[in-house]
Amino acid sequence: MDREEAEKICEAAKTGDIANLKALIKDGADVSYFDKEGVTPLMHAAKHGHSEVVKILLEAGAPWNALSPQNLSAGDFAMDSGHQEVFDILLNAGCHIDEKLKLARWIQAELILGTIARKENSKGDLNGDYLEDRISFSEDKLMESNSKAVMMAWEKPLMEAHAKAICSGGGHILNIGFGMGLVDTAIQQYAPVSHTIVEAHPEVYKRMLQTGWGEKDNVKIIFGRWQDVLPQLESYDGIFFDTYGEYYEDLREFHQHLPALLNPGGIYSFFNGLCGGNAFFHVVYCQLVSLELENLGYSTLLIPLPVKNCLGEVWEGVKHKYWQLDTYYLPVCQVTEDSSDS
């Protein structure tokens, strides 16, 4: 099919011409075709709110996660245009919340998004590379040697909200990943019975000791990767997870240990920076991680926090903008009632 013929499927999707669209698909039209503007038929249909067209294209194999030159997916087009029904259809295409097939399709969708996440980290930034890298501290950021931010001061309100959530029941608190110490400083304000901090980067660990964290009566510092120090961990009433240089697979692996680490009635939370550069994929990830935790027996409440005013000019001199969205969804996770009763 030549370019002129291929353009017809984009036009049919744009105008909502279902009859012509079906005929084109039957004749072998490429549903994944990118037009001269770099937009697929699915993106056109989503932008114009044609829900039936979206369904037809998805059933024909149109990729829901394809990206335009502006890094926008069909879901982003639907979101930006305010087409909620289309957005929900695409969200379900990404998450596949069908009861009979949800686990297998969830794994499939996660693998697709895992590929996207790796593309965002073009240099790899594996945990091992980060731990061997030199880092620099300043008043408002913790940076890698290649000008990528590990943690930044704009996150402080978020870290305070995380601390409030996991410390709501008092008791024993665990934090995986010290960074700039924002969440740990906030945790200390709640005077927990014990406060365990796991930190793997040698320079961050050294700075922790230099700034007196090892001298606090209720603080226990464990140096090493969380995967390696699991035998040293106990059980806790509140847990926060915020590592750098790891992928979603590492977060999922940590979740497998939650039943042994989190006390009944305890609160778990994590830094929700999943796909922080794309609004639609971020929502898909939020749904995926909630589903994963549900399968483990945890309910997840996602609390929206506006962050647009926190960002300002913070990215000046920073190579990788790891967060570009206006709203942060803070996860608060607890054992579901059904699980606690069993």
UniProtKB/TrEMBL annotation:
Record GO terms (molecular function): protein-arginine N-methyltransferase activity
ANK repeats: 37-69
Keyword terms, alphabetized: ANK repeat, Cytoplasm, Methyltransferase, Nucleus, S-adenosyl-L-methionine, Transferase
Membrane-spanning residues: none
GO BP terms: methylation
SUPFAM superfamilies: Ankyrin repeat, S-adenosyl-L-methionine-dependent methyltransferases
Entries under PROSITE patterns matching the protein: ANK_REP_REGION, ANK_REPEAT, SAM_RMT2
GO CC terms of this entry: cytoplasm; nucleus
Residue ranges annotated for the RMT2 domain, each copy included: 121-342
Location in the cell: Cytoplasm; Nucleus
Domain of life: Eukaryota
First-listed, main subcellular location of the protein, grouped into a coarse class: cytoplasm
Any Pfam family matching the protein: Ank_2
Record note on quaternary structure: Monomer.
Function: S-adenosyl-L-methionine-dependent protein-arginine N-methyltransferase that methylates the delta-nitrogen atom of arginine residues to form N5-methylarginine (type IV) in target proteins. Monomethylates ribosomal protein L12.
Protein name: Protein arginine N-methyltransferase 2
Organism of this sequence: Dillenia turbinata
Native organism taxonomy: Eukaryota, Viridiplantae, Streptophyta, Embryophyta, Tracheophyta
